[in-house]
Structures are given as C-alpha cells and as structure tokens.
C-alpha cells in the first residue's frame, strides 16, 4: 500500500481525501461560499481516516495544495499538513492548485485554462494542453477582451474555476468554453501525489511555504 492523505484549502472549497496507490478511498468536502476551513478541516481529516479505516501511522505521506489561492486558506491547509508530517514523521508532497484543477477536464484538443479569483478583474491562471502538461507559467493577470487571444485564435479554450465566472462577459471569442461550478478538490490531487511519491518528489517540511504568487496586502480599516 501507498496511502496518501490530501488537503485542499486554496479556495472556498474545503476538501480532504485519502487514497491508496492513486485510487480514492474516501473524500469529504464542503463549499458553502465562504471560508470554513478553520472549523471543517480537522473534522474532515478525521472522517476520511475513519471511513478508510486507517490510523495516521498507516499514512505514507501527506499532500497539500500549494497555491496560488486564498492567503488564509493556504496557511490553514499547509499548517495542518506540516503538523501531521511533524507529528507522525511523514513526508510532505506539494501539489500545484491550478494543475489539479485542470485535471477536472478531459479534452481531446485545445487547451485548459484554470483560473482562481484574485479580486476585481484579476485572476491566477495557467495554461495546460490536452495531456495536462503546463504550456504557460502561472501568472496573476488582469483580464480584458484581449486575454488569451494567442490560444483562442488556434482552437477551443476551456476556462474553469471561480476566476472564470467573472470573465464570461469580457472574453467573448467563439472558441471560449466556460465550465461552471468547478473548484480545486482533493479528488484530483490523488493521481498527482502518487506520481510525485514514486519519484520521491517531496518538500522540506521545516522550510516549505505556500506559493502565494502575490504578497498578502492588509487593507487599512476605514476611519469612522
């Protein structure tokens, strides 16, 4: 057995799964439209472990979504993952959030552009081909009518994630296809984490930090 626990908290979807050799054993997730990770994450971890009839000593590794995404959500998920790794002496595997989101789609041609909301008209986005290989780096970018024209002019472009919803009225090219209601999930992390485990592609637990992409900015409180 190669049993891996997965934690995904980069967006409003709080998601936890456990898998054996890339096969899903149990999953718990909740997307209520707000950030409930602080309350839900640890109960979800306990629930998937109980459902799979596993103890933490049975786990071979812990995988965590590394970002980009919500600053607070990422901090909660990474802190929980690192805590488990330290407590039970397990390796830590990090999964790029946009890559696992791209795995929600299976296409024969064109490209997949997963997007996460970064407020206003800005998104975190990357581009993947039909084999889920990254063909453009992750960027924080402001979306306008000219965004992704180099891909739209060549064929179908599939947009998904909570950042894609606000782009519908701006990106109106006939090759643009918008997939609604998709969020990063611990389900799609399963294959990616197993592949990394087999390659011994692990993180230094003490020094690992989430991939924020942008610095966290505190908005000053308005004077009354």
TrEMBL record:
One of its GO terms (cellular component) is cytosol. GO terms for biological process: tRNA threonylcarbamoyladenosine modification. It comes from the Bacteria. Residues 36-148 form the Gcp-like domain. Gene3D superfamilies: 3.30.420.40. Signal peptide: none annotated. Pfam families: TsaD. NCBIfam families: T6A_YeaZ. This is tRNA threonylcarbamoyladenosine biosynthesis protein TsaB. It comes from Tenacibaculum lutimaris. The lineage of its organism: Bacteria, Pseudomonadati, Bacteroidota, Flavobacteriia, Flavobacteriales.
